[in-house]
């Protein structure tokens, strides 16, 4: 097991410059301190090859960021006040794509899934799970309607 720790420079008793945080699981996060506050680019590296980049502004993650997964999938999102909040797009290695929205770090609200084969599915998230009516429009024009409750297809 790894030790959880942060390595940084102290200048006149204040964190300054490049820093790295080591998580117990082996993940590392590099970032920069300016006058004791995280500011600028942050890079998160997971032992399995996943990698994220985002920006700190006055100690909080703000603005666009992404996670590149080792399996070829990619997620692009926006941070607001240290939480994912706003539009997000998932790009899958198989050519599929999902457009959705984060609200306070949860997938929440309308979403659209574009299948590589031309099918398109419209649905909604409620706190990270599919919830409510779903409409799948197949490339051949066939329409399939379903209902989800707490992430489970019920109809």
Automatic annotation (TrEMBL):
Keyword list, A-Z: Repeat
Ranges that cross the membrane: none
Alphabetized SUPFAM superfamilies for the sequence: Histone H3 K4-specific methyltransferase SET7/9 N-terminal domain
Entry-linked Gene3D superfamilies: 3.90.930.1, Histone H3 K4-specific methyltransferase SET7/9 N-terminal domain
Recorded superkingdom: Bacteria
The protein's name in its UniProt record: MORN repeat variant
The species this protein was found in: Mycoplasma phocoenae
């Amino acid at each position: 097991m790894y030790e959880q720790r942060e390595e940084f420079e102290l200048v006149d008793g204040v964190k300054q410059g490049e820093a790295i945080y080591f998580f117990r699981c082996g993940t590392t996060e590099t970032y920069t301190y300016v006058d004791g506050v995280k500011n600028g680019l942050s890079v998160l590296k997971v032992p399995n090859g996943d990698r994220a980049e985002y920006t700190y502004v006055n100690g909080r993650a703000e603005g666009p960021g992404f996670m590149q997964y080792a399996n070829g999938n990619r997620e692009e999102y926006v941070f607001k006040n240290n939480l994912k909040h706003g539009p997000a797009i998932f790009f899958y290695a198989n050519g599929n794509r999902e457009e959705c929205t984060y609200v306070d770090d949860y997938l929440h609200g309308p979403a659209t899934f574009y299948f590589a084969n031309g099918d398109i599915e419209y649905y909604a998230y409620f706190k990270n799970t599919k919830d409510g009516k779903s409409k799948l429009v197949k490339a051949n024009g066939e329409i399939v309607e379903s209902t989800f409750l707490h992430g489970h297809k019920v109809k």
